[in-house]
Amino acid sequence: MSELREKVAGFALAFFLGAAALGAQDIPTPRLDGAEPAVRQRLASLQADLRADPENGDAWGRYGMVLEAHTFTDEAIDAYRRAHELSPRTFRWPYLLAALIDERSAADSLPLYRSALALDPDYAPGRVRLAEALERTGQFDAANREYAQAARLGPANAHAHAGLGRLALAAGDADAAVRHLSRARELAPENRSFAVTLAQAYARAGDRERGQRIAAAARSLGRINYRNDPIRSSVQDLALDARSHLRRANAHRVHGELDLAERELRAGIELDPSRPELHFVLAEVLAASGDQPGSLAAARRAYELHPELEGVVPFLARALFQTGDLNGALAMAEEALETHPGNVNMMLLIALISAERGDVVRTVEILDRAYQARPQDPPTRDGLIQLLTNVGEAMASSGLPEAAAGQFEKALDLAEETGNPVATQLRRRLAQVRR
Predict the structure, then answer these.
(1) Which residues contact 373 (CB under 8 A, 6 or more apart)?
(2) In a domain, 293, yes or no
(3) Half-sphere exposure of residue 246, counting CA atoms within 13 Å on the CB side?
(4) pLDDT tens digits for 101-158?
(5) 195 within some domain
(6) What CA–CA distance (Å, rounded) separates 119 from 125?
(7) Is residue 85 part of a domain?
(8) Number of domains in the chain
(9) Is this structure's pTM higher than 0.70?
(10) In the predicted model, what is the mean pLDDT of residues 308-316?
(11) Which of 405, 381, 374, 383 has the alpha carbon at shortest distance from 392?
């Protein structure tokens, strides 16, 4: 009997170990080449949880979320599928699975979105994602119904109103398109695509001038498509790598949460201080917070790490100018123009510094260059008009009416082109110096 018990125990142990080994093989495991230690440790911990309790749907879901947060998409899809199988009454798992499938095939995501929304029909962000998938597959009536339902459930959901506006525009209802897209733009003024589509809607409605103004203003916007989706956002919050800290910082910055953005950036820099983009965004955040010395130091570090990083040289030029370092600002502005000869903002900065030093020839030369570039960005154009006017006034007061008239003429030309109300004053001033 004892021998039989030992054989049975041995068989059971072998069976258990074999099952455990099989379970470990079944766990989707990504290649971690180059992954940061914190990411490796987190995934290893979650894999251990799955080996201990392979039938725990929530454990599979948590593993999927961390995989997705670090862009291990194939493995995350497998984990979410398993989570949904084991916990079929949990909304989160089919919803997150649908969103990942949607990135590859909108049509394949539709049944998953519907399964999720059957569990939580009042989740407005989910309604929007379903509507967008329907829109991409050409099911416009169904998409319109889902967008309308999302707007009822979440009146402040900008993407719901934008979807209604897009569909109205496509259907030829320009007035409805303007109404919905205007609301979307009010709710998400940082979203370039909303502004561009609104400009098209105004043009279609017959107000081409307003459409052009909105389109011109949209050029200065970044390509930000933030949406209020707490469940999807909770995935990104789990990411432990430096790149994810940067992504979260940018999201906080869009919403004016500068303290949170700074915290994310400093955490990213602690993980990987060699990333210049982390230092540069920190410089921008600190500048917005009013910490000019800290901003300048962060910008210098970004420049040291990567002098060709987009935007860092113009930023340094402006920061140095604000601290009174005219030599440093001029050197940076001229370096910026070597890389981007059409950067009118840097031309204006050089003109300011040249005027400060009394270098009239250089000031007039660089302002003429800026005028020839004819900037479309309203703040830049307004700044150029103001500088041309100031130089014209300085020339008039120095007894140089013809030279002054030349500056006023350029300013007036730019003002009239966009209907700037300052044109009336410039016209009057030009007439005075020509007497």
Answers:
(1) 342, 344, 347
(2) no
(3) 16
(4) 999 999 999 999 999 999 999 999 999 999 999 999 999 999 999 999 999 999 999 9
(5) yes
(6) 14
(7) yes
(8) 1
(9) no
(10) 94
(11) 405
Angle, in degrees to the nearest 10, between helices 276-289 and 312-322? 40
φ/ψ region of 343 (left if φ > 0, alpha if ψ in -120 to 50, else beta) reads: beta
Distance CA 406, CA 226 (A): 46
CA nearest to 135, candidates 158, 174, 164, 177: 164
Q: Which residues are within 8 A (CB) of 342 and not within 5 positions of it... i.e. 6 or more apart?
A: 373
Task: Give the separation between CA 128 and CA 160, rounded to whole angstroms.
Answer: 6
Cα–Cα distance between 343 and 318 in angstroms, integer? 13
Of the candidates 262, 215, 272, 213, the residue with the CA atom closest to the CA atom of residue 241: 272
More confident residue, 254 or 315: 315
Show the domain range for 104: 30-218
Residue 210's pLDDT band (boundaries 50, 70, 90)?
confident
Residue 317 located in a structural domain: no
| CATH code of the domain in which 40 resides | 1.25.40.10
Q: Is the pLDDT of residue 252 over 90?
A: no
Q: Which of 343, 361, 348 is nearest to 400 (CA)?
A: 361
Which token pair is 130? 């379903």
d(CA 252, CA 263): 10
- At residue 70, φ and ψ (nearest 5 deg) are -110, 20
Higher pLDDT, 134 or 5: 134
Report helix, strand or coil for 426. helix
